[in-house]
Amino acid sequence: MFFFQICNQHNAEAPNSEQAFHRMAQTEPNLDHDVSWFLLPSYWAKMVVALISFLCFANSYDGDFVFDDSEAIINNKDLRAETPLGDLWHHDFWGSKLSSNTSHKSYRPLTVLTFRINYLFAGGFYPVGFHVINIILHCTISVLMVDVFSILLGGLQFSNKGRRLNLAPKTSLLAALLFAVHPVHTECVAGIVGRADLLCALFFLLSFLGYCKAFRENKEGHNFSIFWVLVSVILGAIAMLCKEQGITILGLNAVFDALVINKLNVLELIQKLLHKDKSLENAVLLRKGLLFRITLLMSGGASILYIRWRIMGTGPPAFTEVDNPASFADSLFVRAINYNYYYSLNAWLLLCPWWLCFDWSMGCIPLIKSVSDWRIIALAALWFCLIGLICQALCSEDSHKRRILTLGLGFLIIPFLPASNLFFRVGFVIAERVIYLPSIGYCILFTYGFSLLSKQAKKKKILAVAVLGILLINVMRCALRSSQWRSEEQLFRSALSVCPLNAKVHYNVGKNLADKGNQSAAIKYYREAVRLNPKYVHAMNNLGNILKERNELQEAEELLSLAVQIQPDFAAAWMNLGIVQNSLRRFEEAEQSYWTAIKHRKKYPDCYYNLGRLYADLNRHVDALNAWRNATVLKPEHSLAWNNMIILLDNTGNLAQAEAVGREALELIPNDHSLMFSLANVLGKSQKYKESEALFLKAIKANPNAASYHGNLAVLYHRWGNLDLAKKHYEVSLKLDPMAPGTKENYNLLRRKLEQLQKKGSA
């Protein structure tokens, strides 16, 4: 009798009267035997997993674009229809050329392609569609996990009709539920950029399931299918084109083949190798084709990695010390001890996913610099557990136990290797998204531990209720965390209590406040970011910008000067420094700062625009026009540069040239009301009243509350002799802005003229 047992028979895929075709040499103990858990038919189990995984993250469907979504999606030109599809294969995840020195070398063209499809179907950057796809992907992956865990926990067996048998329906359901509701997955599901991890996981699992299909006996009676082995390699390659971790499935397939298909005893094999045992000549390794299959997997993996390396370029990605401080430590001991501490924190996030943060860099985790640091205990605990599990996986006399523990450790460790800093430096300290695949191994180990406890426990119901309680807590934690990912404000503020020493957290809170116009609060967080990281140039730049707008020019200049001193190629800081120097009327220094910014960023339209303003202040009109023209060449939709060109040409009496520039600008930006207004003024002065009137009215329709639009239209009517309409628009302008310069005087002149006309009429 089992508590929670819903039906009294195994599902349709469980062994019954059909004779089973065993890929494992002998029948092993059934992991489900002593477990008190739900027993459901396969399709019901998958529906339950899908529903619960959906409930965990459903409230993120209407969230905003947050954090890295801005760079990977909104600012990524590879999503736009005008970008050739071929460019996706030469650009990184963020839209930069892979050959660029600033590229992170994250090559994920298939993920970017799905973003592009989302963008095209939605007709723009509407986040709902992006979020819905992420939720569907996680639900699909969670459903596939039922099949994957049934193989990993119950073994791979087929009926004589070629159907795969589920020998662990209860434990596979439990493990799939643990995976579906794990809160550490929130970043992948609720953060749109997590699409890379989701797609990678999808093809990762399909590759594994495809490899398992290779051992279904075919009509010719062959032991395995080369076709399905090759399909598995191709799916692994597709997984890697979604995210780099995908390549690790080929190694896991090899481990699975050795342990499950060929039932190798690793410790026994090592002993025979050490003693040069002659029985190895006829070992199962060769007899069952394991060597051939592993050669196929390794050859495929090596080819994929070689092609990936050639596309990426021979140089590694460039990261800074703030991204991963341990990797920049001079001492090998400090690097090793901190890497291991990071591993222990990742393990803790799997065990207790309560303290979650969108970013763990910039001082969030201070470096361990000596063995006296109490955090060494975490390393000791991690390795104590790992060594214990490894010993059991290698030395246990129970082959079932050896297999499950080895597979659990393999799925826990191998997908994590690309993020481990062992082979190359990574651009983060801890990233919750990279634990998505390793959590498969955690779920295996947790479920196996639960089955062992159930075997020993007298009150199995209490144990089952405790596990059910863990699942419910995780569901609630997922719902809470996914709601925090709905907006940047909630996301950034949630990190303050988790990583109060993280300068980037304070920076992002400040940036969010500044974007909402709360400059006073933003200054507080920017100052704290700079205090925590005195070399945080982006925080200095943003703080300097706000101080500039508040006319606190002296401190703004000090901050921006320090920023360019720390990072001499920081083009934005050079430009902002130039703006401050211009405001301080130090024109030569400002010009030099602008040109330095352009030197470090050749295509910098905003800097050319500000340089043009400087030249206009110095009455260097030709230089100003050239600078603004450069801005519009680099960015044809640069409305401010177009406007300034029209106004300068208008003010200097070049009406024909001003009209030509205005018409050119409106062809490129036809719905810009400020350009309509500027061109309307020029046309009015050229006595093209009808066309000028049409543009004024169009501009007013687009922006009806602009006092100057009504005022200048009134002037046009005044000149044109349409005095009643002039009076009407003067009055509207004064109502919108009673202090509008010149409008009141013109209105009074009009009234006197109307009074004079009225007197003449009455006489």
From TrEMBL:
It holds the Pfam family TPR_19. It is an enzyme of class 2 (transferase). The keyword Transmembrane helix applies. GO terms for cellular component: endoplasmic reticulum; membrane. SUPFAM superfamilies: TPR-like. GO terms for biological process: endoplasmic reticulum unfolded protein response; outer hair cell apoptotic process; positive regulation of endoplasmic reticulum calcium ion concentration; sensory perception of sound. The keyword Repeat applies. TPR repeats lie at residues 503-536, 537-570, 605-638, 707-740. Belongs to the TMTC family. Residues 315-387 form the DUF1736 domain. It is found in: Endoplasmic reticulum; Membrane. Its EC number is 2.4.1.109. It is a multi-pass membrane protein. InterPro entries: O-mannosyl-transferase_TMTC, TMTC_DUF1736, TPR-like_helical_dom_sf, TPR_rpt. The chain crosses the membrane at residues 43-61, 135-155, 192-212, 224-241, 290-309, 376-395, 407-428, 434-453, 462-480. It comes from Aquila chrysaetos chrysaetos. Keywords: Endoplasmic reticulum, Membrane, Repeat, TPR repeat, Transferase, Transmembrane, Transmembrane helix. One of its GO terms (molecular function) is ATPase binding. This is dolichyl-phosphate-mannose--protein mannosyltransferase. Gene3D superfamilies: Tetratricopeptide repeat domain. Pathway: Protein modification; protein glycosylation.
